[in-house]
Amino acid sequence: MSLDRLRIGFIPLADAAIPIVAADVGFAAEEGFQIELSREVSWSNIRDRLVLGHFDAAHLLAPVAIATSLGLAGMKATLSAPLALGLNGNAFTLSPFLHDELVAHLAPGAALSDPLATGAAFASLVRARHGRGDEPPTLGMTFPFSTHNYQLRLWLDAAGLIPDQDVRLAVVPPPYMVDALQNGHVDGFCVGAPWNAVAVDLGLGRILHLGVELVRRCPEKVLAVRSGLLDGEPERIEALVRACVRAAAWIDDPANRHETARILGAEDRLDLPATLIRRTLDSRLATGWRDEVRNSDNLLLFGRDGATRPDPRHARWLHAQMARWGQAPASTAASDAAAALYRTDIYDKALGAAPPALPDDALELFTG
Amino acid sequence: MRIGDHANLLERIYAIDPDVILIDLADPSRDVLEQMFQMSRAVRRPVGMFVDQTDSASIEASVEAGVSAYVVDGLRKERVKPILDMTISRFNAFSRLRSELEQAKSQLEERKTVDRAKGILMRTRKIGEEEAYGLLRKVAMNEKKKISEIAQSVITAAELLA
């Protein structure tokens, strides 16, 4: 008897680990199905292939899933997110030139890990450039509907800059981000792991901030499915949720880090050195600035602290960012529609677990 | 124009102001196009999509999602012209349908507004339906406005006074 097969698209990023491990370590097989993974190059492709039915599920930016359901851009289709693929994992990286310029504007005694201090320094350098008639910096982010876009804007906004006027924000898909920094298309970027570490290793960039320094519990990717598939064959998706939650617990076990890094590094997965991916799993990143190393136990959360259970408050926050930056109507109806994507009911049913107690603050922003 | 490298793609697209956009589903520069659609809502262009696999469900889904042409198997030189023509003509037909639908929807909304305003007038002035409508029409003619606009003012005023 051949096993049921689910096709899942992913972008080469560390937070694609959950479906990759579910497929490669046998958690899917335990649930009686097979995962066929397909590596994609851009977020619009992965979204469209999900919408068109080429995929049954996808590793998708949470805001893309929301925007697609609200019909804000590109294709419109009703999607659901029965599982979050962890939290956090992003970082800001600047070219050594821009990093030096920022450090020169930093207030005496201010810490480079303090986003308010670096924001003020960045605002000061942007104004200095403007005063000299120089070009503003160009910062890369992964998609108009991405936490990378919103994290950069959160930082710029808190520093009193107007993102759409004072800097240039350019879209670059994650696997091309380091190239874009190398060829000078961008002067810095916000992208998910492990691409910041890649830029540091090549000497092309320095990490300015870990994403967690701005947002302690930041929504990132979800496992997105077409709502039609979820309603029609809920048991297939519930089996997928179970396999993924087990995979996340397996990844969390420090004894499995070596193997996780090896699996993710494979040619048909992220196609990067396992040692480099390992640094993200160990939550220790060299920033490339002198011999500084930043660490955080929250650098990238897979299964710990309820990270896989979709939190509708995250969806509402993402909708609020879309509304803040003119991408979505600021209506309660749109916020409700965004929250409705996060199917905690399916998650809880799949695991046969009662809804857990949630932290009071779903996000913990640096702006308070 | 064929989009080869992504540097300054946005500026180039703005400068060229294309009549049609053809998308190769596997091209990474697509995300940059999405940024353009975001920055300029007014940009509505026919979109043709080239894909490497298909089934009837995918085609149906692409039509529902507003793709003007869903083309299976690669971009071959001799096929491009007819595909371009088809993409544009389908987009135009779809746009026409959409504007007709929007018109029908707004007419329905206007009728609802007028009905509500009539109800308010009938209750507050103790008059019949025809008389209420006649009143709205008279004011609209005097002020050179649409009946639905006057009706909206009646509703707003009633809400403020309630």
UniProtKB/TrEMBL annotation, chain A:
Record PANTHER family: ALIPHATIC SULFONATES-BINDING PROTEIN-RELATED, BLL4572 PROTEIN
Protein name: Nitrate transporter
Keyword tags: Cell inner membrane, Cell membrane, Membrane, Transport
InterPro entries: NrtA/CpmA_ABC-bd_dom (IPR044527)
Parts of the chain that traverse the membrane: none
Taxonomic lineage from the root: Bacteria, Pseudomonadati, Pseudomonadota, Alphaproteobacteria, Hyphomicrobiales
Top-level division of the source organism's lineage: Bacteria
Entries under CDD domains matching the protein: PBP2_NrtA_CpmA_like
Chief location of this protein within or outside the cell: membrane
GO cellular component, as recorded: endomembrane system
Record's subcellular location: Endomembrane system
UniProtKB/TrEMBL annotation, chain B:
Keywords noted in UniProt: Coiled coil
InterPro entries, per the entry: ANTAR (IPR005561), CheY-like_superfamily (IPR011006), Sig_transdc_resp-reg_antiterm (IPR008327), WH-like_DNA-bd_sf (IPR036388)
Domain ANTAR: 94-155
Coiled-coil intervals, chain numbering: 91-118
UniProt xrefs under Gene3D superfamilies: 3.40.50.2300, Winged helix-like DNA-binding domain superfamily/Winged helix DNA-binding domain (1.10.10.10)
GO molecular function: RNA binding
Xref: Pfam families: ANTAR (PF03861)
PROSITE patterns named in the record: ANTAR
Protein name: Two-component system response regulator
Organism, as annotated: Methylopila turkensis
